């Protein structure tokens, strides 16, 4: 069974699915298949643990990339409790949770490259430190790049403390278990790819606070199993940036209104939170705005709610009912030349005030370069007024802080085109 390398790219797009019965039948057939299959997601540090362990053992396996926005029936069948990756399927039997999977791999293939020490106390110590990494690094690191101000400062201080504690446990050893690369190293090393994101978001240097840990990371990267598995640090940073800015409409609207809010990032690498599933039981997707305990779903509906809930600040929809209807129509419509005609000589689509249609369209400004480059045309030539409107919109702090950089969007589109064989 061939080992298919995972892509070092951004999340997969949803290409549609077969009928539910055929997918369930396929999932059942997959669970009856002999061999090793890994259900994973390219940037997941938890899935990377499993890939490294399999590589260290020299185990051939089939890699299956999961679309975490549209999880496969096989994943849902294999991990009905948490419904998340990674899952290792060995001769039809699913094993879940990364550290449990790594221990399973070590026990099923014991004759090659032992990952846990033989002595019981040393094994207990290795499990303790791997569990420490599991409980601390990802959660603290996520708060660090997700939050700002005091929240980010607290996460930064906590992460530095965690790194120093791990450095103390490493000491002068080559690896955490001594001279042999093992269980704790596999638990921690995928996060080396995330160091750049942590440093860039919080303004500190991991090498300055934990130089021995950084040296250990470089030694680990000399191993083929690690070097071929870990994501490029800059790709991880782009991925995080895409997560932060994915739903710009709602964030632009809240910024225009000056509304203070708590931002909660959904864990795209794992199961959707109970709060999301409860708040949006129909579509089970983001964005969801929760105001005084009441959830509002779908981005354009959320923007209208924001406008109505805070009516005294920067109105986003016009007061006249017909003008409001027109704004709703154009917000739901995309055709560049018709949009050009609708914009006319106005500053914004609603006139002098930045409003509902502008918010609906503004996040796509960062995609203009990809459209132009892919299709060989110039938006400025085809729709110069829309291009000028886009530049004016980008001068607004609410927009500039919410939309992605055009070059990053183009790079993501290029990678996805290659991944799915689109010329």
Automatic annotation (TrEMBL):
<feature type="domain" description="GST C-terminal">
    <location>
        <begin position="119"/>
        <end position="239"/>
    </location>
</feature>
<feature type="compositionally biased region" description="Pro residues">
    <location>
        <begin position="1"/>
        <end position="10"/>
    </location>
</feature>
<feature type="compositionally biased region" description="Basic and acidic residues">
    <location>
        <begin position="15"/>
        <end position="24"/>
    </location>
</feature>
<dbReference type="InterPro" id="IPR036282">
    <property type="entry name" value="Glutathione-S-Trfase_C_sf"/>
</dbReference>
<feature type="domain" description="GST C-terminal">
    <location>
        <begin position="292"/>
        <end position="410"/>
    </location>
</feature>
<dbReference type="InterPro" id="IPR004046">
    <property type="entry name" value="GST_C"/>
</dbReference>
<dbReference type="GO" id="GO:0004364">
    <property type="term" value="F:glutathione transferase activity"/>
</dbReference>
<protein>
    <recommendedName>
        <fullName>Probable glutathione S-transferase GSTU1</fullName>
        <ecNumber>2.5.1.18</ecNumber>
    </recommendedName>
</protein>
<comment type="function">
    <text>Conjugation of reduced glutathione to a wide number of exogenous and endogenous hydrophobic electrophiles.</text>
</comment>
<dbReference type="GO" id="GO:0006749">
    <property type="term" value="P:glutathione metabolic process"/>
</dbReference>
<dbReference type="InterPro" id="IPR004045">
    <property type="entry name" value="Glutathione_S-Trfase_N"/>
</dbReference>
<dbReference type="InterPro" id="IPR010987">
    <property type="entry name" value="Glutathione-S-Trfase_C-like"/>
</dbReference>
<dbReference type="Pfam" id="PF00043">
    <property type="entry name" value="GST_C"/>
</dbReference>
<feature type="domain" description="GST N-terminal">
    <location>
        <begin position="34"/>
        <end position="113"/>
    </location>
</feature>
<dbReference type="InterPro" id="IPR036249">
    <property type="entry name" value="Thioredoxin-like_sf"/>
</dbReference>
<feature type="domain" description="GST N-terminal">
    <location>
        <begin position="234"/>
        <end position="314"/>
    </location>
</feature>
<dbReference type="GO" id="GO:0005737">
    <property type="term" value="C:cytoplasm"/>
</dbReference>
<dbReference type="InterPro" id="IPR045074">
    <property type="entry name" value="GST_C_Tau"/>
</dbReference>
<dbReference type="InterPro" id="IPR040079">
    <property type="entry name" value="Glutathione_S-Trfase"/>
</dbReference>
<dbReference type="Pfam" id="PF02798">
    <property type="entry name" value="GST_N"/>
</dbReference>
<keyword id="KW-0808">Transferase</keyword>
<feature type="region of interest" description="Disordered">
    <location>
        <begin position="1"/>
        <end position="24"/>
    </location>
</feature>
<dbReference type="InterPro" id="IPR045073">
    <property type="entry name" value="Omega/Tau-like"/>
</dbReference>
């Amino acid at each position: 069974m061939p080992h298919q390398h995972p892509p070092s790219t951004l999340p997969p797009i949803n290409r549609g699915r077969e009928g539910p019965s055929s997918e369930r039948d396929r999932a059942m057939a997959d669970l009856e298949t002999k061999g090793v299959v890994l259900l994973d997601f390219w940037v997941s540090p938890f899935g990377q643990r499993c890939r490294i362990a399999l590589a260290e053992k020299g185990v051939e396996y089939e890699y299956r990339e999961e679309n975490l926005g549209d999880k496969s029936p096989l994943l849902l069948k294999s991990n009905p409790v948490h419904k998340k990756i990674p899952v290792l399927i060995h001769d039809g039997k699913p094993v879940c949770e990364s550290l449990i999977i790594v221990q399973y791999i070590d026990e099923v293939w014991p004759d090659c490259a032992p990952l846990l020490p033989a002595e019981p106390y040393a094994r207990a110590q290795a499990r303790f430190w791997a569990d420490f990494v599991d409980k601390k690094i990802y959660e603290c690191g996520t708060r660090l790049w997700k939050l700002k101000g005091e929240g980010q400062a607290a996460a930064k201080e906590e992460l530095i403390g965690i790194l120093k504690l791990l450095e103390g446990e490493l000491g002068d050893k080559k690896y955490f278990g001594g001279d042999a690369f093992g269980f704790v190293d596999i638990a921690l090393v995928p996060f080396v790819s995330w160091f750049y994101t942590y440093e860039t978001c919080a303004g500190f240097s991991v090498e300055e606070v934990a130089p021995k840990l950084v040296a250990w990371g470089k030694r680990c990267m000399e191993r083929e199993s690690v070097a071929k598995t870990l994501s490029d640090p800059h790709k991880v940073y782009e991925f995080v940036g895409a997560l932060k800015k994915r739903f710009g409409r709602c964030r632009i609207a809240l910024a225009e209104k000056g509304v203070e809010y708590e931002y909660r990032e959904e864990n795209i690498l794992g199961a959707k939170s109970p709060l999301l599933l409860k708040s949006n039981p129909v579509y089970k997707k983001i964005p969801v705005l929760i105001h005084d305990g009441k959830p509002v779903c779908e981005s354009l509906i959320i923007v209208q709610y924001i406008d109505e809930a805070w009516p005294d600040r920067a109105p986003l929809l016009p007061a006249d009912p017909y003008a409001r209807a027109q704004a709703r129509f154009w917000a739901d419509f995309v055709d560049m030349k018709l949009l050009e005609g609708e914009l006319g000589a106005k500053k914004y689509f609603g006139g002098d005030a930045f409003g509902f249609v502008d918010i609906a369209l503004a996040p796509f400004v960062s995609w203009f370069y990809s459209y132009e480059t892919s299709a060989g045309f110039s938006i400025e030539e085809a729709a110069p007024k829309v291009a000028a409107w886009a530049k004016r919109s980008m001068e607004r702090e609410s927009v500039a802080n919410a939309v992605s950089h055009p070059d990053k969007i183009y790079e993501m589109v290029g990678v996805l085109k290659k991944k799915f064989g689109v010329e």
